[in-house]
Amino acid sequence: MRDKEKKDFLISIAAGSLAGVAAYMLTSSKGDEPLETVQHVDLEKYVGKWYEIASFPAPFQKNCTCTTAEYTINNDGTVAVDNRCYNVKKQKWQQATAKAFVRNEATNAELGVQFFWPFKGDYYIIALADDYSYAMVGAPSRDYLWILSRKREMPQSTFEKLTAIAISKGFDVGRLKRTKQHNCEPAS
């Protein structure tokens, strides 16, 4: 192998290792109690674009601002996931696509997400506005938490209401980091 081929090979191994660590973190479970979800989610109302208001820091979102998630229902009933963010360090948009599938059809609030085979992560909808204007998503391990809104900004009173719910469900909200949603360039 030439030096450039060796370098490219080592970079691909490193990237694969990081992806494996991220997938393990999504699937590992430390929660002692089951994570209670909302009673029911109408997926037709849930799909569309969401803005990340806050989340627990995760390696796969490092240096990200302007984070969004867009969901659409596939013909087979699964949900297409399109996550985007602007990486301020690399000064470019990043995108990750996945497929989500309902694990609990009685509620539609427990989903699994697969960014790449064979690793699957948990996506539990644990709070949801009646008008679907905001949502909070977590994992039973309590290692991941996202506060989402249909708008780039959320009233402080709503944010505080959601953090109180998260605390009641066993999440350490001291880990929450607000996501910058201003001065966002359109994704290309």
Automatic annotation (TrEMBL):
Segments traversing the membrane: none
Gene Ontology BP, a term: response to stress
Residues of the Lipocalin/cytosolic fatty-acid binding domain: 41-181
InterPro entries assigned: Calycin (IPR012674), Lipocalin_ApoD (IPR022271), Lipocalin_bac (IPR002446), Lipocalin_Blc-like_dom (IPR047202), Lipocalin_CS (IPR022272), Lipocln_cytosolic_FA-bd_dom (IPR000566)
Record PROSITE patterns: LIPOCALIN (PS00213)
Gene3D superfamilies: 2.40.128.20
Sequence similarity: Belongs to the calycin superfamily. Lipocalin family.
Protein name as annotated: Membrane protein
Lineage: Bacteria, Pseudomonadati, Bacteroidota, Cytophagia, Cytophagales
